[in-house]
Amino acid sequence: MANGAPDTRVPMTRRSAIAAAATTGGALALAACGAGGGTGDASAPGKSALPVTFQYWDWADVWKDLVGQLVDAFRAKNPNVTIEWQIAPDYWTKLTTAIAGDSAPHSWRMNGPNLPSWASLGPLDDISTYVAKDKDATANLKAMAPGIADYTKRAGKQWTMPFGRAISGIVAYNEEIVRAEGLTPPADLWAANKWNWATLQEYAVKLTRRDGSRHGYFVNRANEIGYLPFVFGNGGQLFTADGKKATANTPQVREALEFLTNLYAKQQVSPTKQDTAQENADNRFLNGRLAMIPYGSWQIKDLNLKAKGFRWDLVPSPLAQGTGKNGSTNQMASVAMAKSSKVKDTVWAWQKFIGSKDGQDIIARAEFFPARIDSAEQIYYDAKLGPAHRPLLRDVLKMTQPLPWLDIAGNTTGWGPIADGFVDKMFEGQLSVQDAMQQLQDQLTAGIERGFK
Question: What pLDDT score does 121 carry?
Fold first, then answer.
């Protein structure tokens, strides 16, 4: 355990794990329970024409159309199958509660941070046997990017089928504003290996108007899009590689947060918390009141649709001065099979379709970052989709890392609200970075011990 203390916890049973997850608001400690509504699997695709129905849940409302396209394409190949799908509100709470109540869907979209503990505690069915018997599926997995392929295979077992790689570590910028100020576009600086923390600060200061009419850069306080790309680029981590201990109070983490705090509080290049309460950062960027903003890959499509009045472009997050590297997070999204589903062969056919070239091409055309390398290269990186330097997403992907995850029995997302609170106090000047990270380290350590109950 953390700090070398002996592990005095009572091991969690299947039911206690489910109860803990349900009472903590949909986190990650689940167990293998019923997958409700099984119809039997005599009608698996390719075996007979008997009808079969299964349920699939997804959390991403922004990709509702994509899920519909995938379902329609799958049904075109398997007309005897009906998929009752939904974008579930309050997704993780609802899913956790459904599994605890033996009424879970047969399949659902899994995110990266939850996968390690869910694989350990049992709601997911190991699909290794299916893969071993299916040379096409084996080939599909080999076509995936190594990062997500390795992540979904744990302890020698294939737990889920890779879906896509929503990544952060991207800076969008208004190219017209940048050029009007006589500055070289960041994408050109990237090509010359000159886009780094110092350059970002220089640009943010020059692009800020001190009358408040425009800010140079939005310092996002959120972890995924905001500070984690800087922490990762600087060689920092919030947790150890095995997901067991907190490592928030290290020089690498503190240095990244000091840089961002300086941008926000001292250089004052970012809209404040009060500013964004009146007008959010996205709107400020669209109306020219914000020159640069950090984004995730899943936001690019929407920005292309909305940014009609000006030319925008993207660049990877800047290189850390100490490491010479950029940073990025990766959601490692995948598709799971419920362990107690009674239509497993049909669910496997759905998973296999998601990992196939046909399925991944649909994902890429919808501008969700596909898991397959070939689908990304042939479709997703095409500059015609916009913006002009979209192919630089390859450079973002090179440095991407999984979102922080914990392999503990308990609410493994419980670290988020704790970290958010300290980051907020840090930016508002209520705590120094040193004090905030020490207190965060202490509370994360205590939280891991108790499973964030």
Answer: 82
